[in-house]
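Posting this for the archive.
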Amino acid sequence: MYHIPKDSIITVSGTVGVGKTTMTKTLAKALQFKTSLEEVDTNPYLEKFYQDFERWSFHLQVYFLGQRFKKQQQIAEAGGGYVQDRSIYEDHDIFARMHYDKGTMTPTDYHTYYQLFESMVMTPYFYHPDLLIFLDGSFDDILARIKQRGRDMEVHTATSYWREMYERYQEWIENFDACPVLRIDINEYDLTEDPQSIDQFYKR
């Protein structure tokens, strides 16, 4: 209806608990696109990571980088027409960098991770998204969603961790320039109760 190309690659981004998966599924259904979702339940490192950041941060980030790179290549080979849950850029710019800064990833591990990221993503052959949708909101609203979702490993994580991640996301999106950005306040819609509220985003 609004001339969105059928070969587009749209990425939904934002901090943990902000509603990326719901937005990804709803938008893909409305556009008749396929989805590329984070595979949280099959991740062999995620639960261990929340129990011991220092021990498992490098393993987790390398796993995510490999999985997301593989999916990005599959999307490109399929000719686009996808909405994907989370961008590959956040792996380095938010998560790996945060653990390096906090000392829960060693300088050696971070350097190794960055070399991988640079050789895989920062090349002219990598297919960047056509649009990044950034889901935004207040920290209190997002923290409430994390608690409402009720994943044990997230609920028992210190609030200070979520606040730091939130602040890093705010700084990151202000400087992100790999593709165009559409910034959306999570209080402007409720896709769980009213899936039709997705219609307002077509015009934007």
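The chain has a mean pLDDT of 88. The domain at 9-200 is CATH 3.40.50.300 (Rossmann fold).
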